[in-house]
Design a protein that fits this description.
mainly beta, six-stranded mixed sheet, four-stranded antiparallel sheet, 1 helix, elongated
């Protein structure tokens, strides 16, 4: 039975979650880029760029950029920009149709319900795909729609040709109008391989080129007859032809160009998917990719990155080595020696990168980049793969001992071990097919804790045995061992501490977490919890937590890193990298067991009892009368290292001398206290 006295004593051990403070976050500038979907210029010559992070404009040739809007939700993405009849640009954002204004802002001009804008002709008519109904045209900004084609494919690559001719592609079809969009005819090219993607381009001679994703087809009679067009790309992704009839063809990893109608081709130097192309009045070319906006000056051959100041890239992972901050986008690694003031591109992956492994190693940083396990000793400039024939194609997490033994959890439900730094591997455990790993953690004896599905397990390195040590209904995101030996687990409903071989006690309750949630302990012994939208910090070993919200909306946090000096870095999905700073507080750890004298003493009614634990222990604290008879148990459970305070209410007892006693496996002490009414 739980009495009011028990409840009162227990409340002093429940962590206090303080009212939230607003934490100022600053966005770090850097050459991180982003996914660039469209580039256009208005009639004033201002440049506009649509990327994952929003819509940006520059009036000084890309030296500085102004954000017109930021994307907070996926429905707000600006995919394409179109030139209107008034010289301003038109675009869709969510269900709204917008136009840029003369002062570089935007104005709402119409709506479209469940439609996607993919073209605007010379009359200002807008063309929409309404999946799966078909293709529609509107002359009043989406208010009324006229169906021009029944199709369940999306309209793409809208081209305004000469003499009122308009063309666009949808699926394997070319749609052509010869009277300014009033009437349309469908041409379906004959192809041996229909492919998966479609891109349409036209040259100054009236030739049309259709890229299928498997081959490129050419027609000189607007689709009546087609022929194959040779290119150096086995799987062409996109095609574009500029004002000089230079042809650009992109594969998944390369961009090629030809100035002689495909007789010869040159490698442009862009190693990425090219999503769109643009050309300004001076003849400068622009290419938007999944990771950067590139520019090629007129009459030049080389492309260069042109997106400094548009820092909207997805920041997959963050770490630090010897004071050098390192971030990882989906393809590149950047380093900063001065906490984000200046940046250097250290490495560009051939295929892609996903994460730094989150354990701290003094000499090396380990990462998943162009393959599962790689390491660097020079801040990301060069990477060494531990085994070119690594048997697992994808990993969830790894842990490496001080002896370079590796534990690796694969996405194929296997836990694997290497005693020779990855040269040979042994599968030491295989889980059920319908669950996945989430985290690995080594303790000070190199025993491994790991989360799989809803269960936590421990691998005993000496006995080579695996035991189940806990069940969590919603799983566990993170496991850490503190410097004082306590094992912590982060679950969607709170932080738990390991009490014994199978039981866990909740330290603090939370209401869910995001993708980038993290639980860490810094060198000052502060416990740090990042939930995705809040930062919680305890400077008293978990008895209370300072709570911080952020001064700016962070778009889908993807990564988090806390250094030992109070700097916190948050990488977002399409909003760049942010930094916040909070002064650290040194947490003094108890060096020995201690039972303090109660206070006040003598007392009337309520008194307080304090005790210290130098390590995690099962503790019994009880009150006795002078004859040694137990009156009340104030605490009987496993507690982590720390200083504790209990309140005892003696309202119903008579005046006199009482005893209180603390007992653990290693420590016993009893003290007297005087109740005086």
């Amino acid at each position: 039975m739980i009495t009011k006295k028990h409840i009162f004593a227990f409340l002093y051990l429940i962590p206090i979650l303080l009212l939230a403070q607003v934490l100022k976050v600053e966005k770090l500038n850097g050459p991180f880029g982003g996914t660039f979907r469209s580039v256009k210029w208005d009639s004033k010559g201002s440049m506009f760029v649509a990327c994952d992070g929003g819509l940006f404009t520059s009036s000084d040739d890309g030296k500085t950029w102004k954000a017109i809007n930021n994307n907070y939700y996926t429905t707000d993405f600006v995919n394409s920009l179109f030139k209107g009849t008034d010289g301003n640009l038109l675009y869709q954002k969510g269900n709204g149709i917008y136009s840029t204004t003369s002062d570089g802002n935007e104005t709402h001009i119409g709506n479209i319900n469940e439609g996607s804008l993919f073209g605007v002709d010379s009359k200002g008519q807008m063309y929409f795909t309404k999946y799966p109904e078909g293709i529609f045209v509107s002359s009043d900004n989406g208010k009324t729609l006229r169906k021009i084609r029944e199709t369940n494919r999306w309209g793409t690559d809208f081209i305004v040709l000469k003499n009122q001719k308009i063309a666009y592609s949808h699926g394997a079809n070319l749609e052509l109008s010869t009277n300014g969009g009033i009437d349309w005819t469908t041409q379906q090219p004959v192809t041996s391989d229909p492919g998966i993607g479609w891109s349409l381009a036209g040259d100054s001679n009236g030739n049309l080129f259709l890229c299928t994703g498997k081959e490129i087809l050419k027609t000189n009679d607007y689709g009546k007859n087609w022929m194959k067009f040779a290119s150096p790309v086995q799987y062409p992704w996109s095609i574009h032809i500029n004002s000089k009839d230079e042809i650009f063809v992109s594969s998944q990893l390369k961009l090629y160009s030809s100035t002689d109608y495909g007789q010869s081709w040159s490698d442009s130097g862009i190693n990425d998917y090219v999503l769109n192309y643009a050309e300004d009045k001076a003849g400068n070319m622009y290419a938007g990719t999944f990771h950067h906006l590139y520019k090629r000056d007129v009459n030049k051959k080389n492309w260069y990155e042109y997106d400094s100041g548009i820092n909207q890239s997805r920041i997959n992972s963050i770490t630090m080595q010897d004071g050098n901050l390192m971030i990882m986008t989906t393809k590149e690694i950047y380093t900063s020696p001065d906490m984000g003031l200046t940046w250097n591109k250290a490495y560009s992956a051939e295929y892609g990168s996903s994460m730094f492994y989150d354990f701290k190693n003094k000499d090396r940083v380990f990462a998943y980049i162009d393959g599962p396990i790689n390491y660097t000793t020079d801040y990301g400039s060069t990477w060494t793969r531990i085994n070119a024939n690594f048997p697992y194609d994808a990993l969830v997490d790894i842990e490496i001992t001080n002896k370079d033994e590796i534990f690796a959890a694969s996405n194929r439900n296997t836990l694997n071990y290497s005693s020779d730094f990855g040269k040979t591997w042994t599968t030491i455990w295989k889980g059920a097919e319908n669950y996945v790993f989430s985290d690995l953690c080594l303790d000070k004896d190199d025993n491994l804790f790991f989360s799989y599905g809803k269960d936590l397990y421990k691998y005993d390195k000496v006995n080579k045995s695996i035991t189940n040590i806990g069940y969590f209904e919603k799983g566990v995101k993170k496991i850490i061992e503190s410097p004082w030996g306590t094992i912590y687990a982060l679950a969607p409903d709170g932080i738990y501490i390991k009490a014994n071989e199978t039981d866990w006690n909740k330290l603090i309750a939370i209401n869910g977490y995001g993708f980038a949630s993290s639980l860490e302990i810094n060198k000052q012994m502060q416990i740090i919890l990042f939930t995705g939208n809040e930062l919680l910090i305890s400077s008293d070993l978990g008895k209370s937590f300072d709570r911080y919200t952020f001064s700016e909306y962070l778009l889908n946090p993807m990564s988090f890193y806390a250094d030992d000096d109070g700097n916190y870095f948050i990488g977002t999905q399409a909003g760049g990298l942010y930094k916040a700073t909070i002064p650290t507080k040194k947490v003094e750890l108890p060096a020995q067991y201690r039972l303090a004298q109660n206070y006040p003493n003598p007392f009337n009614g309520q008194t307080f009892i304090e005790f210290s634990l130098p390590k995690q222990a099962h503790v019994n604290v009880a009150v006795f009368n002078i004859l040694g008879q137990e009156i009340e148990v104030l605490k009987n459970e496993t507690l982590p290292l720390g200083n504790y305070k209990l309140a005892w209410d003696s309202k119903k007892l008579a005046s006199g001398v009482y005893l209180y006693k603390i007992q653990t496996l290693e420590f016993v002490e009893t003290k007297k206290m005087i109740l005086m009414k």
